[in-house]
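During the reporting period the student researcher (J.K.) took over the structure-prediction task from the postdoctoral fellow and processed the backlog of single-chain submissions. One of the processed entries is reproduced below for the supervisory committee.
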Amino acid sequence: MIFSQDSISAQPQNTAQPTAATIFDVTAHDFEQKVMAASMKTPVIVDFWAPWCGPCKQLMPVLEAAVNAAGGQVLLAKVNLDENPELAQALRVQSVPMVFGFFQGQPVDAFMGVQPESKIKEFIGKLLAMAKGAQPDAIDIPEALKGAAQALADGDAATAQAIYMQILQQDEQNADAYVGIVRSFIEAGQIDEAKSMVDNAPDVIAKSSVFEQAKSAVELANAPQAGNTQQFIDKIAADPNDHEARIDLAYALYAQGKKGEATDALLDSIAIDREWNDEAARKELLTLFSAMGHSDPVTVAARRKLSSILFS
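J.K. obtained the following structure tokens:
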């Protein structure tokens, strides 16, 4: 990352009005979606400012005019320092104005303080040149989805996320890849980021049938853990027909990342009494399938077991 420590006093002229599609406010809640994810395709400039900062008010019109002049090839995300201290801490912002250039999910350039218009245009030019030189070759999306799903099943959330991001860079409306990124965040323990993606999903993705899987995954990830598994194991040992305890055990195991054991707990309940409580165990199992994804190896294996039980 390159930092310029120069603080040049200049009187900029605001030659353009902000465009909503390219210039917008960002908070800690939607930073992942509006900056990190968006920068996989289009460079994003992040401007940290504060209402009390005079130089910030001087710099912002210059940035807005330069971004508008780029015609949508670069975006500008404005972050209020006072309202988002966690973002400032994460990026080690110690004074404002502080401006970062993000591309492909990473900060690749930065400067601090007021800069003249020529320097701003040079800054944007570097980002555009970087984006132009990084256009990837076309990928085989079906094969890439398989590879990402396998990486996720192997517990390699970082690799899965990178592949899903690459797919979205080529096809921004690919709902499977979008849902895959949500799953990768959950796998990495980044539940807030996953929830933000679900809450801020583009309409075309939110309306897809596969998006329900992302919602189920986030709902389960946000659910309180069912407690220590041993208490449920003891209940089942005392009464094998305690199906409520088997369901609680399944969710406790799932919360611990033991997906296979979680599905087995529900399959055991179905095998004993599939009709219990209006087929509650089977319905809960289908919820887990949706949360894990229908191509997840654990889901595939559990479906085979379920078929054997139901049709035996």
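The committee noted the following: The beta strands are 23-25, 44-49, 75-80, 98-103, 106-112.
J.K. will present the remaining backlog at the next meeting.
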